[in-house]
Design goal:
This protein folds into 2 domains: 4-65 and 322-426, Aspartate Aminotransferase, domain 1 (Alpha-Beta Complex); 71-320, 3-Layer(aba) Sandwich (Aspartate Aminotransferase, domain 2), CATH 3.40.640. It is built from 15 helices and 14 strands. The chain has helices at 4-16, 71-82, 92-104, 117-132, 157-162, 172-175, 186-196, 221-232, 251-256, 282-285, 304-319, 322-343, 369-372, 377-389, 410-426, and strands spanning 38-42, 45-48, 53-56, 110-114, 136-140, 178-181, 200-205, 235-239, 262-266, 276-280, 349-353, 356-360, 392-393, 402-403. It has a 7-stranded mixed beta sheet with strand order 4-10-9-8-7-5-6, with helices on both faces. It has a 4-stranded mixed beta sheet with strand order 1-2-3-13. Strands 11-12-14 form a 3-stranded antiparallel beta sheet, covered by helices on one side. The radius of gyration is 21 Å and the shape is globular. (4S)-4,5-diaminopentanoic acid is lined by residues 23, 25-26, 61, 157-158, 211, 400.
Length: 427
């Protein structure tokens, strides 16, 4: 495979952009080799600047549940652009999207649109603190909630593979109120809430962890978390930036039947354009300015292009039965990869919920950050590079999810498994 133009661009980029990338994992540091530069995408495929084609299982890290450049979404964006790209003033389309989110996500009675998942979570935490009058928050090891200061503690993929424990530049006092506990460990949360419950504003988690690789909640974990937080007047926030509209139309909270107080969303709701949202109980959301005292604002919030893409995306998801189809494809891929590994005598753990999955290169079950870190990342790197060379684009990090979209055909999945059999056998 020739990647001459990508190599040239990467060397130019390194001179202009830190590490040559606008988000660290994209630099391929933990898997080796040099990143390919993408020119375009269509359906399940991406094409790089050297003309190589890849079946894409990153799907822009989650938003592309319908694949690349879905004609209806492209049309919606084009039509919106013709009317103007931003107004910094309210539009009818924002009301339509807000209604669609409220109808879909059980916990959300009111919603505020922002520009990214990071912004959504940062705002939801401020809101939880403003509402409760408490400062401390609890997060879980390996759960990623964006890169705002107070949440960059044991934050999964990017920091995990770069070997940076947290981040430089975050003053100690900004993480002093962040308590970090092991994911899926109900005893730890029970103890902490019974000792400090009255000081804690919120517990935030990815109800299905996606950024230390996919780790589902253990049976009863979310239910017990809901019960304990309610008991202590602590708000429960589900970060559904990845799982929202991905594992079910109503997200993980629909799938598991557990309703948080606040929910953060991103990725899919923007139809592939930058968008985030936070929402929840009306009495809490009414603390947000201009109704209440918790300030949050943004020039491009509710941007017409992103809103148009989001509306069209949600319409398509609602009208077609995508989730059963995605689950079937997800299962075929996860099972195919796992049995290819088994046949080659390579120990893996295959974690999957619907169309999001991770194959961890480890012998032991993966249920939290510590067990995820048992993975042999050099083996993942070999798998990744072998697959990339054959035209299959997986995440350049062991600690990420692989995503299947509606655009992936059964043939795409079969071809991927066939290639994986060869790579794994050679390892
Ligand atoms: N770790 C991020 C996704 N979970 C990376 C995002 C990106 O590089 O675009």
């Amino acid at each position: 495979m020739h990647i001459d133009r990508s190599l040239k661009l990467f060397s130019q980029a390194k001179n202009l952009i830190p590490g040559g990338v606008n988000s660290p994992v994209r630099a391929f540091k933990s898997v080796g080799g040099s990143p390919v530069f993408i020119e375009r995408g269509a359906g399940s495929r991406m094409y790089d600047v050297d003309g190589n084609s890849y079946i894409d299982f990153v799907c822009s890290w989650g938003p592309l549940i319908l694949g690349h450049a879905h004609p209806r979404i492209v049309k919606a964006i084009r039509m919106a652009a013709e009317k103007g790209t931003t107004f910094g003033a309210s539009t009818e389309a924002e009301v339509i999207l807000a209604q669609m989110i409220v109808d879909a996500v059980l916990s959300v009675e009111m919603v505020r649109l922002v520009n990214s998942g990071t912004e959504a979570v940062m705002s939801a935490i401020r809101l939880a603190r403003g509402y409760t009058g408490r400062d401390k928050i609890i997060k879980f090891e390996g759960c990623y909630h964006g890169h705002s200061d107070g949440l960059l503690a044991k934050a999964g993929s990017g920091v995990a593979t770069l070997g940076i424990p947290d981040s430089a530049g975050v003053p100690k006092n900004l993480t002093a109120d962040t308590i970090t506990l092991p994911y899926n460990d109900i005893a730890a949360i029970r103890e902490t809430l019974s000792a400090y419950g009255n000081e804690i504003a919120c517990v935030i988690l990815e109800p299905i962890a996606g950024n230390m690789g996919v780790i589902p909640p253990k049976p009863g974990f979310l239910e017990e978390l809901r019960r304990l937080t309610e008991e202590k007047g602590v708000l429960l926030i589900f970060d559904e930036v990845i799982s929202g509209f991905r594992v079910a139309y109503g997200g993980a909270q629909e799938l598991y039947g557990v309703t948080p107080d606040l929910t953060t969303l991103g990725k899919i709701i923007g139809g592939g354009l930058p968008m985030g949202a936070y929402g929840g109980r009306r009495d809490i959301m009414e603390c947000v300015a201009p109704v209440g005292p918790v300030y949050q604002a943004g020039t491009l919030s509710g941007n017409p292009l992103a809103v148009a893409a989001g509306i069209e995306m949600l319409k398509i998801l609602k009208e077609s039965n995508v989730y059963a189809d995605l689950d079937k494809k997800g299962e075929a891929l996860a099972q195919g990869l796992a049995s290819a590994a088994k046949e080659s005598g390579i120990a893996v753990q295959s974690n999957r919920i619907g169309s999001m999955m991770t194959m961890f290169f480890t012998e032991t079950e993966v249920t939290d950050y510590t067990t995820a870190k048992n993975s042999d990342i050099s083996r993942y790197a070999k798998f990744f590079s072998g697959m990339l060379d054959r035209g299959f684009y997986f995440a350049p990090s062991q600690f990420e999810a692989a995503f299947v979209s509606t655009a992936h055909s059964d043939q795409d999945i079969a071809d991927t498994i066939a290639a994986a059999e060869e790579i794994l056998a050679a390892m």
